[in-house]
Backbone:
């Protein structure tokens, strides 16, 4: 896989309460990924970009939601989330050493 595709596959890390809990308890990191990305592509991109060992990748399709604003119905786009399980001793710190 070329470098451009790696940067396109991983869109952004997911920073939420559940993702933080998964990082602490199960050594997993959550990413928002492209809808057409495959699990091997996600694993290769994380391994190469962050220099870590990837054990497993689980993906979840987050459905689109219908929302109302001032009486008009609108729709939020759906997206795809990947939980990447890292190898023993590996860690990705997105916030750096914030104190």
Residues:
């Amino acid at each position: 896989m070329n470098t451009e595709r790696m940067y396109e596959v991983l869109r952004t890390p997911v920073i939420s309460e559940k993702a933080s809990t998964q990082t602490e308890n199960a050594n997993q990191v959550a990413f928002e990924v492209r809808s057409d990305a495959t699990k091997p592509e996600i694993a290769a991109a994380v391994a190469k970009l962050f220099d870590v060992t990837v054990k497993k990748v689980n993906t979840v399709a987050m459905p689109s939601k219908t929302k109302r604003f001032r009486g008009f119905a609108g729709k939020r786009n759906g997206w795809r989330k990947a939980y990447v399980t890292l190898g023993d001793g590996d860690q990705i710190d997105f916030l750096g050493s914030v104190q």
In short: The chain has a mean pLDDT of 91.
